[in-house]
Design brief:
single chain; alpha/beta; Rossmann fold; five-stranded parallel beta sheet
Length: 571
């Protein structure tokens, strides 16, 4: 379904919010529905229903259903006097950007369909005759629900959808007897118009971490085989976090039907998907890939355009809502406000799902990431989180953030040899945000403009290291680096073309002394090749391949299928 979203960011003026909603909903632009979201600290108790057609709030929610052509899907919630609302209309066809005093409007084309790589996986999954119920996990707002619903609507005659956060009453369908017939009967009663057609129905269980019984029921659906099931979960790794010591409340490990489901990760848009969203054709991307594979310079025009797109990816990241805002407005302030609103949502999850004793620790760890990356030695140090901080106090908090998909750890390796996982040191690691846009939103407002202007100076190195981590983790790779007390340090180690390869990220041109030392001492370090990424074009100098930063998303080890031959038992 194609439509438009209006992002409304308001600073410090509630009356303008109400007036603006009234104007928008009474305009001839065809706005049909309003989607309201955000975070809450303040209660707008003084709203005038008579003046603006907005009913007074109930608790912290502002009910706006009184407005013509306006329906409430999510409540407005305020935090630090910042509100973000979303307005979608199928009929709206104009792109506009209006500034009214301290109010900012920008229409975002939600109909700008983002091509996602996971769609290929979904198509292959449906073709598989022995497919199991599919569980897609990933950070909040990475596009899971949109992609799954789109796929289901295009490939099934009937789609039955439920969201356990927005529709907690649907949990009752999975209580008691969890055989498929009983579940289907219950859902038929709870969801008006639902149709269950054998072999032609997809059941979508959104935010399944909120209903452990539904997760358990996946085994029954697999054994029954009449209906396809796709579940999504934003916090599958942390639901029930901290409860093992006390009680098994919601979401204990016993709810996981091991062997009867397929679990995959979904990430925010990677750089290639970002290029697709910006209208870059496959022909252009294929030419860049060809230059990388054949070690040939990228034509100047393409090279310049790709570098500019890379800097935009750095400040925007891959969260679909932020990408939408960027494509529609190109306005850094609006982009930053959307990013901050999403981060506020992540912080609210830290409070909601963490054990009481760990809530402040998780947030402190998260907020320390920019300071951790500012150090020359970027090893995560608990003393930077809080003076006197210890591993025993914070290690669980790091795990929580990683399980939520917000951060990724990059482990130190004892030696520069494969397998990297086998040689990693689990108590020595760096921490990067899983999406580069999250890091940028955690920095001072204005940092985005500095990136575009090249004025970030020393911290630029940390930004581009996190960018490389973004490239690697979104391609499904684990992160490793190498550090010795002598000062020898390599930014990243990766498996590439079947061997261990050094990845050095340079924010500016210059020599990489540690990389040169390792390459000169092959008998000690067993590394033969390195890739240096920076503001270069493609080139080679002996063992070192130099590539532009934007080619970082191409560094992955594509291994052809290996068929194990039969053993010749003839004597």
């Amino acid at each position: 379904m194609l439509g438009w979203d209006i992002v409304f960011a308001m600073l410090n003026n509630t009356s303008l919010l109400c007036a603006s909603l009234y104007i928008l909903t009474h305009s001839p632009s065809g706005i049909e529905r309003v989607y309201l979201s955000g975070k809450c600290r303040d209660i707008i108790s003084f709203l005038s229903a008579n003046e603006y057609g907005v009913s007074p709030c109930s608790g912290c929610a502002v009910l706006v259903s009184a407005l013509p052509n306006l329906s409430m899907e999510h409540p407005i919630r305020l935090k630090k006097c910042i509100v973000v609302t979303y307005i979608r209309s199928e009929k709206c066809s104009l792109t506009m950007f209006i500034r009214l005093e301290k109010c900012y409007f920008a229409i975002i084309n939600q109909g700008n369909y983002f091509k996602r790589k996971i769609e290929t996986y979904l198509a292959d999954w449906k073709k598989s005759e022995d497919r199991k119920p599919l569980v897609i996990k990933g950070i909040r707002q990475c596009g899971k629900t949109y992609i799954v619903r789109k796929f289901a609507e295009e490939n099934y005659e009937s789609v039955v959808y439920m969201n356990f956060i927005l529709e907690p009453d649907k949990k009752s369908a999975f209580t008691g007897n969890i055989d498929v017939d009983t579940i289907i009967l219950n859902l038929s009663a709870l969801i008006n118009g639902s149709r269950f057609i054998e072999g032609k129905t997809c059941i979508i269980l959104d935010e399944i971490q909120e209903c452990k019984e539904a997760r358990t029921a996946l085994k029954s659906f697999h054994l029954d085989g009449r209906f396809d099931v796709i579940a999504t979960g934003s916090l599958l790794g942390v639901k029930g976090y901290g409860q093992s010591k006390k009680k098994k409340g919601d979401g204990g490990q016993d709810s996981i039907p091991i062997g009867y489901e397929t679990v995959i990760d979904m990430y925010p848009l990677d750089f290639e998907e970002f290029l697709w969203a910006n209208g870059i054709t496959d022909a252009v991307i294929d030419s860049v890939k060809s230059c990388f594979e054949n070690e040939k310079p990228v034509p100047d025009g393409i090279h310049k355009a790709m570098m500019e797109l890379l800097y935009r990816y750095v400040i925007v990241g891959g969260l679909p809502e932020v990408v939408n805002c960027f494509l529609a407005t190109k306005n850094i302030e609006l982009i930053y406000n959307v990013q901050r609103n999403l981060i506020a949502g992540y912080e609210e999850d830290m409070v909601k799902y963490a054990d009481d004793a760990d809530k402040p620790n998780i947030r402190e760890c998260f907020e320390s990431i920019p300071k951790q990356l500012a150090k020359e030695n970027k090893k995560f140090q608990y003393s930077i989180v809080k003076k006197g901080g210890r591993a025993s106090q914070y290690i669980g908090s790091i795990q929580w953030l990683e399980d939520a998909g917000i951060v990724r750890r990059c482990y130190n390796t004892q030696i520069t040899e494969l397998p990297l996982e086998g040689n990693s040191v689990k108590d020595c690691f760096k921490v990067y945000t899983a999406d580069i846009g999250i890091l940028m939103a955690m920095l001072d407002y204005g940092t985005q403009a500095d990136i575009l202007k090249g004025n970030l100076l020393g911290y630029k190195g940390a930004v581009f290291e996190n960018l490389m981590a973004d490239f690697l983790c979104k391609s499904g790779q684990k992160l490793y680096y190498f550090h010795k007390d002598s000062g020898l340090e390599l930014d990243f180690l990766a498996r590439f073309k079947g061997e261990c390869v050094i990845l050095e990220v340079k924010a500016k041109t210059g020599k990489a002394k540690s990389m040169a030392t390792v390459l000169k001492n092959r008998d000690v370090y067993h590394v033969r090749n390195a890739i240096k990424l920076g503001q270069y074009n493609v080139g080679r100098n002996g063992d070192i391949l130099t590539i532009p930063l934007y080619m970082g998303f191409l560094v992955e080890d594509k291994i052809a299928d290996v068929i194990i031959p039969d053993v010749d038992l003839r004597l």
